[in-house]
């Protein structure tokens, strides 16, 4: 099946909303892209001549139909589809006025500037709510608006370390290659974008009921701490900081990777019945009868004795033999796919997770679909991530009703 060519949905959940996106890099743009996918009109504001930092975070870059690189880095394409793009120099009085006029006609403002930076331009929440009392204003920073670290710049990698994630991720210290490890993607940024999306939607629901706007203070460190889930509770209920388990699980055994005769598989036996089927398929049914291994708490306690026995058992079959037999028995399992295998997977294809959108310089842009599947108001893919300033004249003319002479003057003065 070829990648789906995305089209605009005529019925969207958020088509009545306008979002002014003053964010760049990943956390803020990820939130804004979610809102755009759900139908909101999102206006991305960038610096003239430079734009979002991620536009130049390459290679790789999007290639045109002749195979030549365009100006759009793959990283930028990650989080900016469905948006309109305008360039505005907010350090100028005229640029600030443009932002104020756009905010006055918007439902939501998103920003991820350093704490206090927008206040000097009169573009902070307290300033903008004077002209738009029901405005939802979401600030995304590394450490929040108060506290001893509030003035620090926030970077995902650093937050993964500070927030405890890297103390839980990586091979065990007593194993070869043991030590702290970051995630393969910027999870603190991405999860902050997701939490920000939820917070914005909650604030909009409150506004629709009461007419009251509000301020949202999102911090990467807060999100990183919150998302540690059961590991947080393992610590809080015992006072003992959890250790790294590599590809194993702190509370479930066996729940990890195993080497087969020709590769690796993941086995996630979440209950005793699944474990029993696993060892029966492997020709070792006695491992289910052994009192040390007959229940999950016992298996966790005797992990060091059990895992070598299971590892020896798994090596006797190929990866595909194991997956076929375990799937037939209802034991959760799976391969470890590279991304070429991911996008070639029949389930990923069936879910239409790769899309293509027309692109002004590349002809088309391959993109990853939103995972949100809504029956009545499906996500809307209106346009590929925009070129720098692609819609500047359109926005100033259609929304702010600037005439051509005024726009030309702003451009001559490098305000836009």
Automatic annotation (TrEMBL):
Any GO molecular function: CoA-transferase activity
Keyword Ribosomal protein set for record: no
Gene3D superfamilies: Crotonobetainyl-coa:carnitine coa-transferase, domain 1, formyl-coa transferase, domain 3
InterPro entries referenced in this protein's UniProt entry, alphabetically: CoA-transferase_III_domain (IPR050483), CoA-Trfase_fam_III (IPR003673), CoA-Trfase_III_dom3_sf (IPR044855), CoA-Trfase_III_dom_1_sf (IPR023606)
Pfam families membership: CoA_transf_3
Superkingdom as given in the UniProt entry: Bacteria
Lipid biosynthesis among keywords: no
Keywords for the protein's UniProt record, in alphabetical order: Transferase
Protein name: CoA transferase
Species per Swiss-Prot/TrEMBL record: Undibacterium rugosum
Species lineage: Bacteria, Pseudomonadati, Pseudomonadota, Betaproteobacteria, Burkholderiales
């Amino acid at each position: 099946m070829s990648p789906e060519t995305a089209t605009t949905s005529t019925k969207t959940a958020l088509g009545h909303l306008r979002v002014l996106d003053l964010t760049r890099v990943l956390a803020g743009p990820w939130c804004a892209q979610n809102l755009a996918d759900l139908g909101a009109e999102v206006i991305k504001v960038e610096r003239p001549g430079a734009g979002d930092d991620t536009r130049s975070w390459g290679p790789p870059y999007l290639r045109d139909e002749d195979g030549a690189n365009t100006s759009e880095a793959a990283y930028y394409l990650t989080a900016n589809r469905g948006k309109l793009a305008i360039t505005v120099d907010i350090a100028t009085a005229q640029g600030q006025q443009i932002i104020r006029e756009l905010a006055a006609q918007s439902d939501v403002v998103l920003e991820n500037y350093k704490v206090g930076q927008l206040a000097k331009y009169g573009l902070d929440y307290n300033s903008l709510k004077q002209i738009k009392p029901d405005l939802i204003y979401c600030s995304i920073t590394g450490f929040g608006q108060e506290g001893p670290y509030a003035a620090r710049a926030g970077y995902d990698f650093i937050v993964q370390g500070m927030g405890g994630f890297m103390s839980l991720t990586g091979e065990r210290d007593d194993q070869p290659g043991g030590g702290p490890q970051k995630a393969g993607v910027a999870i603190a940024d991405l999860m902050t974008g997701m939490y920000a999306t939820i917070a914005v939607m909650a604030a909009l629901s409150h506004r629709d009921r009461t007419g009251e706007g509000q301020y949202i203070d999102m911090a990467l460190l807060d999100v990183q701490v919150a998302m540690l889930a059961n590991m947080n509770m393992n610590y809080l209920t015992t006072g003992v900081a959890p250790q790294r388990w590599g590809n194993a699980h702190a509370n479930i055994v066996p729940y990890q990777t195993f080497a087969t005769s020709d590769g690796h598989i993941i086995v996630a036996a979440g209950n005793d019945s699944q474990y029993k089927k696993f060892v029966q398929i492997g020709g070792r049914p006695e491992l289910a009868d052994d009192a040390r291994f007959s229940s999950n708490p016992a298996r966790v306690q005797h992990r060091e004795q059990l895992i070598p026995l299971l590892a020896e058992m798994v090596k006797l079959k190929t990866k595909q033999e194991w997956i076929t037999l375990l799937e037939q028995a209802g034991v959760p399992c799976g391969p470890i796919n590279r991304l070429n295998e991911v996008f070639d997977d029949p389930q990923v294809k069936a879910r239409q997770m790769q899309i293509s959108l027309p692109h002004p310089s590349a002809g088309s842009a391959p993109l990853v679909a939103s995972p949100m599947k809504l029956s009545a108001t499906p996500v809307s893919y209106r346009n590929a991530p925009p070129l720098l300033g692609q819609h500047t004249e359109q926005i100033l003319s259609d929304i702010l009703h600037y005439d051509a002479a005024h726009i030309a003057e702003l451009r001559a003065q490098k305000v836009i």
